[in-house]
Design brief:
With 122 residues, the protein is of the alpha+beta class. It contains 3 helices and 2 strands, in the order ββααα. Helix 1 runs antiparallel to helix 3. The longest helix is centred in the middle third of the chain and has 12 residues, at 63-74.
Length: 122
């Protein structure tokens, strides 16, 4: 089994989510079809990488995170995947541009996460 990357404007930094996979052949309206929940915590706002590109976010926003956003903008081979560096706009657009770099700088400066959290379920 490999790594699954999920991005959406409903998934916010520093959030905690319970994930319950279900086989697509099962009826999603029956709770018994779901696996036990796996609790996942998302990284801090602006935390793209650890001290190096080969590390997962480390809950610290520093120059490595800004450099990562710049390198992803330049499309360098060692830069992490887009879903890590794509911090703007609110709805992920899979485009790394100057706004993403600016947002990484804002996070480093300690500015608050600029977007709203998840909407309530209907």
């Amino acid at each position: 089994m490999g790594t699954l990357h999920v991005s959406d404007n409903e998934i916010v930094p520093s959030g905690i989510y319970d994930v319950q996979p279900i086989d697509c052949a099962n009826d999603p309206s029956h709770e018994a079809c779901y696996s036990d929940p796996l609790t996942i915590a998302t990284s801090k706002w602006g935390d793209i990488v650890g001290d190096s590109y080969n590390q997962a976010p480390d809950n610290v926003v520093n120059f490595a995170d800004i450099a990562c956003a710049v390198d992803k903008f330049k499309n360098t081979p060692e830069a992490p995947i887009k879903s890590r560096a794509d911090v703007a706009p609110d709805v992920p657009d899979k485009i790394i541009d100057f706004t993403d770099i600016s947002m990484a700088v804002d996070a480093f400066r300690g500015l608050a996460y600029p977007y709203g959290g998840p909407d309530d379920c209907p």
